[in-house]
Amino acid sequence: MTRQTPHGDPRIRAAARAVSLAEATSFLLLLVATAVKYAAEHPQGVRVLGPIHGVLFLAYCALVGYLAFTERWARRRTILALVASVLPVAPFFVERHWLRDPAAPPAATTAPPAAKPASRTS
Fold it and tell me: What are φ and ψ of residue 109, in 5° steps?
């Protein structure tokens, strides 16, 4: 039996993060491939990326549904996470803000404090 955190299985959360990033990236690549298909008449990119994106989309939705159920997400959060799957860059937001491990300390994104200017005594 595996040990679970209060926020569910960390392996499922890690898989959801990976799928979220892959789904968003595949969506952007599919948009580029669609533009190339119609501008340069090369449909091969869409033929390859379409099914890949489709599988990632379904996996993303399934993982969001699973996490929403097991972690008791609010209905609004669940709906927004699912709506994010149809917007090109929104799964990046979901991964960054909702799928990161809540027990992990926040990343050091702040700049070090600025040095105080030397005081002049005259």
Answer: -105, -5
Reported as a single tens digit per residue, the pLDDT across 47-73 is 999 999 999 999 999 999 999 999 999
Scored b (16 or more CB within 10 A) or e, 36-60 reads ebeeeeeeebbeebeeebeebbebb
Which DSSP string corresponds to 41-63?
Answer: --THHHHHHHHHHHHHHHHHHHH
**CA-closest candidate to residue 60, choices 12, 107, 108:** 12
Among positive and negative, which fits the CA dihedral 41, 43, 44, 48?
positive
Answer whether 0.90 is exceeded by the pTM.
no
Q: Judge contact between 105 and 14, C-beta under 8 A.
A: no
- What ranges do the domains of the chain cover? 10-97
For residue 112, the number of C-alpha atoms closer than 13 Å in the C-beta half-sphere is: 2
- Is the distance from CB of 10 to CB of 84 less than 8 angstroms? no
pLDDT tens for 8-46 read 688 998 999 999 999 999 999 999 999 999 999 999 999
